[in-house]
Structure to design on (406 residues):
């Protein structure tokens, strides 16, 4: 499994040109475009023996800096990164759509916009940063560009015909490598919540950090440090609409502060553990159950085979991976069975495969997929009233937020 130090080592080989940038908050006008506890009793050693995906940054041309106001291309195709299938699909709630095929967010102290260009490439523009070289490295790390998405998907396609068919319509759905603290706090907010309310909570907490600028009418802030989060009271959070999650935020921040090595170091160290150890450690924090822990592990801790399991992922699994359990009631005890099924099918990057399969079930994507993908569930015979009820519930899912909750 790729570790953070490997990715950074690869990135530092790039010939990067420094450019003096303004440290003032960003203006409100974006640049114009030149192109308008999971458990794995299965034997993972053999599953994880497949070759490591290539680093898509190796052997790529040196990235140069264009004139102010223009987009700098990442020189990767749509098959490696398609923004609409990466940012608004429940991985993060801090990025905003600030223009057509354009998303803006904060990575550490850097305010950046990404735009899907007409040729399929992705361009980036830093609105605020004190060091552009550092900002580029942080951006590449955040986008997980040390991993070739297309190469991983080629292996998935060989083992799964349905994945192969879906991939041709949903290419570029990349898994991000977020800051562990940001990811942790966001997914505590997501528990039993809807996307509008989650976003409101995350915006409130983000506003406690340093103001970086306004893009597309949205204010952007650096995510607050643990000590700043600790200054917020449970009463303030409840008044801001956090409900029972307020005590979990407070309790988690206090727990992180109590770590001998410091909360940030403790979280970063989880990247060096195996999945079960990382999930167990996360589950020791208030408000973090197995599902939330798996989300954090997949989206920030390099645990690429983590499978966040809820009722929706359960329905995907029982329909396509473990049909013998179709019609049975989903229980927490069956989470490991679902996770095992994904890992056995897709290997050490099973979480990336699950992300694509999950996105394919979103109403927004079902609307543009060929009808045969939606009809498959309808024509499957129901063997019992329980199965009919389960099929009905599967069709009634309404938005992405519900799939990233406990």
């Amino acid at each position: 499994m790729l570790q953070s130090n490997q990715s950074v080592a690869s990135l530092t080989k790039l010939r990067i040109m420094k450019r003096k940038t303004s440290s003032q908050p960003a203006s409100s006008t974006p640049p114009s475009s030149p192109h308008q506890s999971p458990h794995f009793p299965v034997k993972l050693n053999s599953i994880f023996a497949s070759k490591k995906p290539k680093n898509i940054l190796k052997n790529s041309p040196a990235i140069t800096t264009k004139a102010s106001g223009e987009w700098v291309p990442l020189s990767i195709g749509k098959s490696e990164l398609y923004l609409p299938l990466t940012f608004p699909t429940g991985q993060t709630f801090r990025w905003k759509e600030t223009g057509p095929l354009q998303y803006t967010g904060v990575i550490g102290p850097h305010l950046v916009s990404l735009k899907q260009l007409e040729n399929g490439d992705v361009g980036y523009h830093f609105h605020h940063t004190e060091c552009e070289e550092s900002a580029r490295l942080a951006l590449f790390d955040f986008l997980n560009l040390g991993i070739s998405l297309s190469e991983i998907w080629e292996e998935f396609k060989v083992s799964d015909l349905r994945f192969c068919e879906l991939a041709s319509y949903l290419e570029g759905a990349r898994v991000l490598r977020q800051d562990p603290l940001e990811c942790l706090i966001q997914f505590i907010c997501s528990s039993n919540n809807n996307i509008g309310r989650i976003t409101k909570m995350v915006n409130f907490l983000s506003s406690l950090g340093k103001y970086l600028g306004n893009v597309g009418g949205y204010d952007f802030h650096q995510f607050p440090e643990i000590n700043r989060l600790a200054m917020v009271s449970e009463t303030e959070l409840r008044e801001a609409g956090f409900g029972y999650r307020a005590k979990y935020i407070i309790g988690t921040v206090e727990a992180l502060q109590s770590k001998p090595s410091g909360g940030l170091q403790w979280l970063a160290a989880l990247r060096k553990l195996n999945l079960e150890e990382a999930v167990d450690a996360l589950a020791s924090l208030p408000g973090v159950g197995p599902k939330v822990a798996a989300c954090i592990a997949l989206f920030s801790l390099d645990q690429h085979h983590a499978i966040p399991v809820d009722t929706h992922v359960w329905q995907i699994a029982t329909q396509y991976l473990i049909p013998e359990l179709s019609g049975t009631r989903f229980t927490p005890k069956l989470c490991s069975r679902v996770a095992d099924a994904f890992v056995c099918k897709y290997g050490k990057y099973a979480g990336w495969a699950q992300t694509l399969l999950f996105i394919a079930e979103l109403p927004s994507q079902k609307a543009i997929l060929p009808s045969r993908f939606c009809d498959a569930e309808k024509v499957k015979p129901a063997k019992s009233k329980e199965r009919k009820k389960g099929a009905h519930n599967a069709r009634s899912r309404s938005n992405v937020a519900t799939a990233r909750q406990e």
